[in-house]
Amino acid sequence: xxxxxxxxxxxxxxxxxxxxxxxxxxxxxxxxxxxxxxxxxxxxxxxxxxxxxxxxxxxxxxxxxxxxxxxxxxxxxxxxxxxxxxxxxxxxxxxxxxxxxxxxxxxxxxxxxxxxxxxxxxxxxxxxxxxxxxxxxxxxxxxxxxxxxxxxxxxxxxxxxxxxxxxxxxxxxxxxxxxxxxxxxxxxxxx
Length: 191
Fold this sequence. Notes:
By secondary structure, this protein is mostly helical. The protein has helices at 4-7, 10-23, 28-40, 44-54, 59-73, 76-89, 94-106, 110-122, 128-140, 143-155, 161-166, 177-190. The longest helix has 15 residues, at 59-73.
């Protein structure tokens, strides 16, 4: 099996993101990605400390990554709190709708998840919507639909591969044989 470490050089990415953030500590993109990377690397105390420093600098970006963190930890109440804060700061961000559906799915609200799927389909925002649908289906435990949409997003060169490959929230999908096929397809596109 292809391992994520062979595909993505974590140490180099971390070094570059830390440098970028030091040079531009107010840029929400760097804050979101750096907090996410600490989390993905298992540096929980570093991630939590970082988020404490950045909630006032870039609250929406910080609360987005904290939502994912608390989802992974199984702290659904805290994940919902962080989600609501992120939504309050950036209610129209593309992340809001799919995360609302994902949260609903992970907390057993199938109707809420299906409602989010319908809203994404009705308000199609281009091929990135393929990832959003995939993630909600993943939350519902429908790995067939998850991989169908991931495959379509890969074909369109818009797949959110970092989340699929590294987020602890999507770890179960990496045990499915279709994940290896996804990695091979992704490698062939990158070649």
